[in-house]
Amino acid sequence: MKKIVPYLIVLTFAFFSGKGFGQAYVAVDVEEEYDFLTNHWLKMSEDISHYYGLSAFCTNSEYRTYTIEVLELLHHYDSMVLDLLKDPTVEIDISSHEYKKTMKDIEKFEGDYDLKGFIAFLRESCTTRNQLERDKQDLKKEMGMYSYDGQVMMLETEVNKFLNKIDKRILAINKHIHHIHPDKVKPFKMVSAND
Question: Is residue 11 part of a domain?
């Protein structure tokens, strides 16, 4: 019984304060949010495409978590737009060509560059980076592409190619979102914790 009393006090306080532990809905401007997230993503992508940024991603859990959260939010917003496009009750004032292109770009981003794929690719890249750091002294004795610098350059090239593909999709989706103006078609609300 002594263990239950603190929980009852918290629940009673929450009930009478009128706030509770519920959730509220907050209106969001999808265009603005996607612009903001796109700009953040492009900066992070640029950083991670270089060895020092990849090292930060691999060794700093806060930076890694933040990067993944930004990409996750981008996927969330483009999924909201995809749902809007698929909703038969909503009329969107864009050409059929723009509609098909938007659908294709979002579905490709959601399929080929989903969060699991990103995490798997970066995990592999971090493993390669960690191996390079372990073998650094031996690799410095090598020449050309087998040297430490050569291996770093090859890793950067591989990461850069992958991130450029994601960047290209995000920028294309951002452009589509500005053509569609989803907030004018249907207001979007996000779940937010009560304060």
Answer: no
pTM above 0.85, yes or no: no
Asked if 187 and 22 touch (Cβ cutoff 8 Å), the reply is no
The 10 Å CB-count burial string (b at 16+, else e) for 29-60 is ebbebbeebbebbbebbebbbebebbbbbbee
C-beta neighbour count of 14 within 10 angstroms: 14
| pLDDT tens digits, 109-150 | 998 889 999 999 999 999 999 998 888 777 677 777 778 888
d(CA 92, CA 98): 11
Closest CA to 171 of 39, 30, 33, 32: 39
Number of domains in the chain: 1
Using CA atoms in the order 44, 50, 51, 53, what is the torsion angle rounded to 10 degrees? -20
151 assigned to some structural domain:
yes
